[in-house]
Design goal:
Blueprint (H helix, E strand, L loop, with lengths): L1 H14 L3 H9 L13 H7 L2 H27 L9 H17 L12 H11 L4 H15 L2 H19 L6 H17 L1 H9 L10 H4 L2
């Protein structure tokens, strides 16, 4: 159990290193006080600019990749051997990294919505899900201009993508990870969905290509 605890702890601490908030401190800005108030790439783009936003996304995706890659290797260092197999340990470390991004211990438990870090995790544990996730995200964004809606639908697409395109039989840990990430993204974007229902959600008009071509 000690090695599993270390995997959970390292995953969470890595996730708590928020790209937007860490870089923001270097620039003397807390983007949670600007724009949508979210410590993520989209708000960074809208409030600070594309260079800052790109750096934020690279950090957030990168820590998801690192957590999922590092999880199984941390457990191997245990003299008693790992309790779980490598995919399960990667899933555990990746999921706790996303949790750390949303509720970072280093930044008062107020972080981002977890999408970038989730992409990094998926890239390691289930790369076959990346293409359908990207397709769903792009089609929704280009068709509606709503980044939040695109992210939610892309997150939900993880479940069927994991089941239909993954190995058979699908490891339980990967199925659980897909459900957990989809549910977490749905939860963190609940404000976006509420604003969509009320008609007050911000639309990224520059990305709404399909609308403009009609």
């Amino acid at each position: 159990m000690i090695e599993l605890g270390s995997v959970v702890l390292i995953g969470y601490l890595l996730g708590s290193v928020s790209g937007a908030l860490m870089l923001g401190r270097l620039r003397g800005i807390d983007i949670r006080k600007h724009g949508s108030g979210n410590a993520g790439g989209t708000n960074a783009l809208r409030t600070v600019g594309w260079v800052f936003a790109l750096a934020v996304v690279l950090i957030d995706v990168g820590k998801g990749v690192l957590a999922a890659w590092l999880g199984p290797r941390l457990a191997v260092l245990s003299s008693s051997g790992p309790l779980l197999d490598a995919p399960s340990l990667a899933a555990v470390a990746g999921l706790t990294a996303v949790v750390g991004h949303v509720w970072p211990i280093f930044f008062g438990f107020r972080g981002g919505k977890g999408a970038g870090t989730a992409v990094g995790v998926v890239a390691v544990v289930a790369p076959w899900c990346l293409l359908p996730l990207l397709v769903v995200w792009l089609i929704t964004l280009l068709g509606t201009g709503y980044v939040g809606l695109a992210t939610v639908l892309a997150g939900l697409s993880l479940v069927p993508s994991m089941a239909l395109l993954g190995p058979s039989p699908l490891p339980l840990a990967l199925g659980g990870l897909a459900i957990a990430l989809a549910g977490l993204l749905l939860f963190t974007h609940r404000g976006n969905l509420a604003r969509l229902r009320s008609g007050t959600e911000n639309r990224f008009e520059k990305a709404r290509v399909l609308k403009r071509r009609r």
